[in-house]
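ok so i was messing around last nite and threw this chain in just to see what happens. nothing serious, just curious
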Amino acid sequence: MIPGDYNLSLDRFFLGISEYVFHTQLGVVDPQLVDYVGSLLIRFTRTESAQKVRSPNGQPATQIVSMLSEADHRLGEAKREVHRHIGDYTLFWSGLYPEALRCGNASDESDQFIVYCSHGKRSYRIASCIDARENDASNDLLLRLSEQFELCAYGLREIRREWERRDGQRDSDRPLLI
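result:
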């Protein structure tokens, strides 16, 4: 299999499973939103996409507080992109891997998770208010991501369950990839 074919297969898988879960399991028929979630999965398969925001010394900002600090130091489209990334980053982790966000004692975990998600919702909302010349995500879509953050995170958890279910199938039940 050549790399281009692999990427195309991965793209099809993530877009297809996103559409399947959102349309059939959740009853969400918002093609723009569902495509965005599928594209988010595709983008975040590459480490550099998850570490897109950089500090002035070139180090990746991997903590929400450092990303927010970077957003405060930017203007216009650059600020929009950092806030959009914070929304994407928090949506990805809270949806697919919420267990990775657990730290501290059990009584603090739910509060920390809620604060983490609120940063994502807020960042999408801020990004939706900043005009951009090149829009692969419209301001209206970013606002919907803010308003429907929990639903999208739940959809990502369902996507993970679906691909884990599919991974659990016996090898003889899986189609061969050549």
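not much to say yet. The chain has one domain: 3-166.
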